[in-house]
Write a structure and sequence with these properties.
Rossmann fold, six-stranded parallel beta sheet, 14 helices
């Protein structure tokens, strides 16, 4: 029986899509005959110190003999040759989104990460990615063999259709406040639309990137939108469910998404969507369920938001398409099945 050991940096309970994905897969793998355990790695990844790398090397070398090692991409792409050399047996790299495509990195750091991640992934026995878009990036930009990569998209739990609020129109965005999420751009895009009665709720952690939070507050203050925009910080699942239930429009201004789990969650509730088509976002939410704009293009985002907020027929059409698409989204059972097949050396 193959035992899977997941090497994951930081706190597995962290409220991000990547950690949520890891948690659900680990929870479900035993149902497919694959016992799974967690090997905690230092939280400093993808920017580890020398001491953290040595700690990681020792921890990996001490894992159970014969186990299959699955390394979360937040750490794997930053592994040095010394750490990689310590890995015995099969290793699977899990890529939520390539490290070098994180927003806000200096060019030199992007180059460094692309090189280290490419070398690590080429040494892996197999690579699992969470979207077709990420697979394309690894093949086209990191020169990995397509046959070496399996796509295991995140699952989506069934949900009740949202009823919305209507007056004022409730706009919802979900995810930690990070540069990549483009929340400051979303505020800039909404600023010219003050004549429309809307409220924006951003539900996501405020302790992940201090500069991004400061930039977002500055954008809100610059346009006098303090009474229109609410930053909730991290919320419990029941509160997030209430936000989805009362939302009239879901918005993602993200500059890059490896999949966009919150987009799938919005579709599962039949919410109309406006999104910046960065990374895999355009694949996750098709043309029928969302108004797509170029990532980072504020005027385009303003125009799409204005159309969605002022035309109920457009919202209703998007919502119906989202609801129908939401019925066809993969389940977590399917995600874990594909994962287990790779671990067991089978074709998914």
């Amino acid at each position: 029986m193959a035992e899977a050991v997941f090497a994951i940096p930081g706190d597995l309970k962290t409220a991000t899509g990547g950690y949520a994905y890891d948690r659900r897969v680990i929870e479900l793998l035993p149902a497919f005959g694959v016992p799974a355990s967690v090997l905690p790695l230092p939280a400093s990844f993808p920017n580890p110190t020398d001491d953290d790398l040595e700690e990681t090397r020792r921890a990996i070398a001490a894992r159970p003999s014969g186990s299959v090692l699955i390394v979360d991409g937040l750490a794997y792409g930053a592994f040095t040759d010394g750490v990689l050399d310590a890995i015995e047996g099969r290793v699977i790299g899990l890529v939520h989104h390539p490290l070098f495509l994180e927003t806000g990195l200096a060019h030199a750091r992007k180059v460094e990460l692309k090189d280290s991640e490419g070398r690590a992934l080429k040494r892996a026995n197999h690579v699992i990615v969470t979207s077709r878009a990420t697979k394309r990036i690894l093949v086209e930009r990191m020169e990995l063999s397509a046959e070496k990569i399996t796509v295991a998209e995140p699952g989506t739990d069934p949900a009740q259709r949202a009823t919305g609020t209507g007056a004022p129109l409730q706009i919802l965005a979900v995810g930690a406040v990070l540069p990549r999420k483009g929340y400051d751009l979303l505020v800039e895009a909404l600023a010219p639309l003050k004549d429309i009665d809307w409220r924006l709720t951003i539900a996501g952690a405020l302790d992940r990137h201090a500069q991004a939070v400061e930039t977002l507050h500055a954008a809100i203050g610059k346009h006098g939108l303090e009474d229109r925009v609410t930053l909730t910080g991290k919320v419990v699942p029941a509160t997030l469910e209430r936000f989805y239930e009362s939302a009239d429009l879901f918005v993602s201004a993200s500059l890059f998404e490896g999949y966009g789990m919150v987009l799938a969650e919005a579709m599962a509730r039949g919410l109309p969507i406006v999104l910046a088509a960065g990374g895999a976002a355009a694949d996750t939410a098709g043309d029928a369920a969302a108004l797509h704009v170029e990532a980072g293009n504020v005027p385009e985002l303003t125009a799409a938001l204005q159309r969605a907020l002022t035309d109920k027929k457009v919202r209703d059409k998007l919502a119906d398409a989202a609801w129908e698409a939401g019925r066809t989204l993969p389940t977590w059972h399917e995600t874990a099945r594909r994962f287990a097949a790779v671990i067991l050396g089978l074709r998914p």
